[in-house]
Amino acid sequence: MSEELVRGLKCRLCGKIYEKSPLNFCTDDFGPLEVVYDYEAVASTLTKASITARPHNMWRYRELLPIDGEPTVGLNVGGTPLVRADRLAKALGIAELYIKNDAVNHPTLSFKDRVVAVALSKAVEFGFRTVGCASTGNLAGSVAANAAAAGLEAYVLIPDNLEQGKVLGAMIYGAKVIAVEGNYDHVNRLCSQIAFKFGWGFVNVNLRPFYAEGSKTMGFEIAEDLGWRAPDHVVAPMAGGSLIGKLLKAFKEFETLGFIPKVSTKMFGAQATGCNPISNTVKTDALKVRPIRNPNTIAKSLAIGDPADGYFASQLIRDSGGWSEDVDDDAIVDAMKLLAETEGIFAETAGGVTLAVAQKLIAQGRIDRDGSTVLCITGNGLKTQEALIGKLGRPPVIKPNMAEFEALVGSEAGELVGA
Ligand SMILES: *Cc1c(COP(=O)(O)O)cnc(C)c1O
Ligand SMILES: [Zn+2]
């Protein structure tokens, strides 16, 4: 049914159209390929009413996702909460704040389940039996889990310095996890060679155009949950620079289909200072992205020195009237604490990056205090606990008696019950 909704793949540099195939770059100029849809055909089948009648997961927007048949992988992904964050808003001194909480995405607690659900459903359609990825951590767990549930063989390649929660969180699913000496850019280059030589479906290499479209569902959910409107500001973390562009593409598609009013969302990209190729490009008004050779930050999930979509991300940030900033590791930890203490949400280091950057942009006056702001929380703090070791102190230890407890907290601290 949705077969005719996807026109093909289009080169983002020269506009050449390719058939739907496992290919991620233009053979003329190496430009990245992007899925194009026939929006008139989509509009004739997808309505707000048909969306809201469906289950609360990412597939309620399936006509805007690049699969031909029914999805076969990741059927329960998405539908995460958009949390009205009044206590955090007060701490930041802004009026209207929301957290899009993909730290609780099913099944692996990051937004990567969205991209993997599309990529692996597409891999099944293309007939791949073996899939893989180059990962900074969250993608590893998501490919491993979703491939396991779909009965696909998975090869997961990671840099050799990842957090234990990310490594064990991939190995538990029985995937073949391989640690590569080097950083993400070394891993990614190796995966391109493997995908080509072995003919496997690497979700973020030869399946990348399809994979990337999965991120749009985070934007669709935000707009729907805001009561069918786009927010004034979105702050999103950037690694390869894909998510931030797909959030805006989602809003623009809803606008094109007449589901929401005209979009004027300012997009704000967040990075760590220890790996800031995209924010550096925006801040210095450069045209080209200068790769970072040796990324060094606790936000390992964002540590991509040579971001595939960095050029397009920096362009769209400027064009939207937004901006990009980066923050150091201490600011990241402080923001992880602030989010947890105000909203009860334990985000991974990338979430600390997003909130700390938002604080900086509010202080700079780039995020207007009266507008609506959405912070995209993309991963779960339980997977990056190393970042907090030694930062929160240790719980005091007492003997199991009241005297020790009262000596610790002071007897006057308690409210007398039944007195
Ligand atoms: C992968 C990842 C991102 C960024 O994704 P890109 O689309 O590559 O920019 C953000 N947050 C977390 C936690 C991630 O794992
Ligand atoms: Zn081209």
Average pLDDT across residues? 96
Approximate strand percentage: 15-25%
Give the termini separation. 70 Å
CATH architecture of the largest domain: 3-Layer(aba) Sandwich
Write the element-wise H/E pattern from the N-terminal end onward.
EEEHHEHEHEHEHEHEHHEHEHHEHHEH
Strand count, sense and barrel status of the largest sheet are: 6 strands, mixed
CATH topology of the largest domain: Rossmann fold
Number of domains: 2
Rg computed from alpha carbons, rounded to a whole number of angstroms: 22 Å
* Bound ligands, named by name, code or SMILES: pyridoxal-5'-phosphate, zinc ion
Tally of DSSP β-strands: 13
Under the CATH scheme, which class of the largest domain?
Answer: Alpha Beta
Number of helices: 15
Global shape: globular
Structural class: alpha/beta
Q: Order of strands side by side in the largest beta sheet?
A: 4-5-13-10-11-12
- Share of residues in helices: 25-40%
The low-pLDDT segments are none
Offer a concise description of the structure.
37% of the residues lie in helices and 15% in strands. The protein is of the alpha/beta class. Pyridoxal-5'-phosphate binds at residues 110, 112, 138, 237-243, 301-302, 348, 350, 378-379.
Please describe the topology of this protein.
Layout: E1 6-11, E2 17-18, E3 33-37, H1 39-43, H2 48-52, E4 82-84, H3 86-92, E5 96-101, H4 112-126, E6 130-134, H5 138-150, E7 153-159, H6 164-171, E8 176-180, H7 184-198, E9 201-202, H8 208-213, H9 216-225, E10 233-237, H10 243-256, E11 266-272, H11 277-283, H12 310-319, E12 323-327, H13 329-343, H14 349-363, E13 372-377, H15 402-409
Parallel strand pairs: 5-13, 6-7, 6-9, 7-8, 10-11, 10-13, 11-12
Antiparallel strand pairs: 1-2, 1-3, 4-5
Helix pairs in contact: 3-13, 4-5, 5-6, 9-10, 11-12, 13-14
The structure holds pyridoxal-5'-phosphate (PLP) and zinc ion.
Residues 110, 112, 138, 237-243, 301-302, 348, 350, 378-379 line the site of pyridoxal-5'-phosphate (PLP).
